[in-house]
Amino acid sequence: MHASHSRRGGVSSLVRIVPSGSRRRRLFIPATVSDRSDGKIAHLDGLNLSRAWCWRQLAPALGPELAELARRTADEHLAASLPHVAGDYMGEHWLATFAMLALEA
After folding, report:
1. How far is CA 8 from the centre of its chain?
2. Which stretches within 1-105 are classed as H helix?
3. With contact defined as beta carbons under 8 Å apart, do 88 and 94 qualify?
4. Where do the structural domains in the chain lie, given as residue ranges?
5. What are the tens digits of pLDDT across the range 21-55?
6. What pTM did the predictor assign?
7. What phi and psi, each to the nearest 5 degrees, are found at residue 17?
8. How do residues 78-99 score in pLDDT, each as one tens digit?
């Protein structure tokens, strides 16, 4: 979603596509990466960076309160994984792409 898209649908559209219950809460909490040298677990850093990118893209289409929540959520996801973009080949050879997308959104 690009920031210039119409606000039509805004919150009601978001509510329709976001899962309910505990699955909804998980979208707002960064994933914990227990072992960045494990190629499979390292993908959770990519998930965090991808979510940050998406939350930053959604924020302009939301009302003020939800936009603030989206920006705060994006910042938390970035903080959880951005420091780990470099340092271990399992992540560094591809995480930079997601980090760039999140930072430029």
Report:
1. 22
2. 10-17, 21-26, 43-58, 64-81, 89-104
3. no
4. 35-104
5. 777 778 899 999 999 888 899 899 999 999 999 99
6. 0.78
7. -95, -15
8. 999 999 988 877 777 788 888 9
